[in-house]
Amino acid sequence: MSFTLFLIQCLNGLQYGTMLFLIAAGLTLVFGVMGFINLAHGVQYMVGAYLAFAYLHLTGSFWIAALLSMVTALVFGLALEFLVFRHLYGRDHLDQVLATFGIILFLNELAKVIFGPATLSIPVPELLSGSIPLTAELRYPVYRLATIGAGIAVAGLLYIVVSHTRVGMLIRAGATTPQMVSALGVNIERLFMIVFGVGAMLAGFAGVIAAPIFAIEPGMGDNILIVAFVVIIIGGIGSIRGAFLAGLLVGLIDTLGRSLATMATASVFPPSMADQIGPALASMLIYILMAAILIFRPKGLLPAKGAA
After folding, report:
1. Disulfide check for 247: which of 9, 21, 23, 297 has CB 3.0–4.6 Å away?
2. Is residue 106 in some structural domain?
């Protein structure tokens, strides 16, 4: 593998990893603070992408569409929490899984009804179009670099909020000792609503920034939800730092692994077969990493304080 190709794959891995972090950050807070298994979190990523598509065609501006999509994703998440999820907090995990899986099916079909089953896309905003030279041989898209920067900026903001504000203190406490937080007189319902709304908005934001890169289609959030669960297990449930580190690790391993595994299998199998076997083997690497973490560090790489 040439240095140029290696650098491209690393940047693509960072871009994928920051997007995974945006999804996993909300999921790890909801799971860590509320103990709630929300399989519909991936659907909120899909909702963000479809909202960006709808608002872009309505306003003609990607930036206005992004802002409106994030606000709508927040409102949508709060509505789901108030109308559906709030009634499931006291139920067992099986009820939560079945209810949220039903929401996945409903919203996927609703997306087909409203937007059709065809794959949609939106253009890269003009301000971030084009590419910039990183080396003499490499030009990299500006938009992908911007998504990396946006993910890192959100990670920094979340770290400040969670680590240095009163709401963050309650979230950290709720992630480790929710019964104690409730006993101290904290309005748990309001805390849960804030956490759930922020998680929905982050997933929606991930869908917005992914829309110009990936295809917009019903069910687009289903597969990425599985990877997001892998991220929070590797990083540590309830840990923003862990989600960020694990997101970058998974993104780099998945992206670099596809190229390296394809090159390795090409020395044994015909090229056409290697192109199929390589990515399949690479997709196993993140699950092997997750299994190793569960064996040697069952709380994750950077567990929430008090959870180790």
Report:
1. 21
2. yes
Query: Average of pLDDT values for 174-200?
Result: 76
pLDDT in tens, 206-258: 999 999 999 999 999 988 999 999 999 999 887 888 999 999 999 999 888 88
Question: Would residue 213 count as lying in a domain?
Answer: yes
* 256, 289 contact by CB (below 8 A): no
Q: What is the pLDDT of residue 307?
A: 53
Calculate the alpha carbon distances from 203 to 123, 179, 191, 196, 265 in Å. 20, 27, 18, 11, 35
Structure tokens at 190: 């309001």
CB 155 within 8 A of CB 21: yes
Domain count, the chain: 1
Minimal CA–CA distance to 84: which of 51, 57, 110, 107? 107
Cα 271 from Cα 211, distance rounded (Å): 31
What CATH number did the domain enclosing 73 receive? 1.10.3470
pLDDT at 185: 73
**What distance lies between CA 75 and its chain's CA centroid?**
19
Residues 44, 63 contacting (CB under 8 angstroms): no
Helices (H) and strands (E) in the chain, counts: 11, 2
225 contact partners, CB below 8 Å, separation of at least 6: 23, 39, 41, 42, 45
- On whether residue 237 sits in a domain, the answer given is yes
Q: Which residues pair with 83 in a beta bridge?
A: none
Q: pTM for the whole thing?
A: 0.88
Alpha helices in the chain (DSSP H): 3-34, 41-59, 62-83, 93-115, 142-164, 166-176, 178-183, 188-210, 220-235, 240-266, 271-296
Mean pLDDT of 39-47: 91
Let me know if residue 302 belongs to a domain: no
3-class state of residue 228 by DSSP? helix
Domain of 170 in residue numbering reads as 3-296
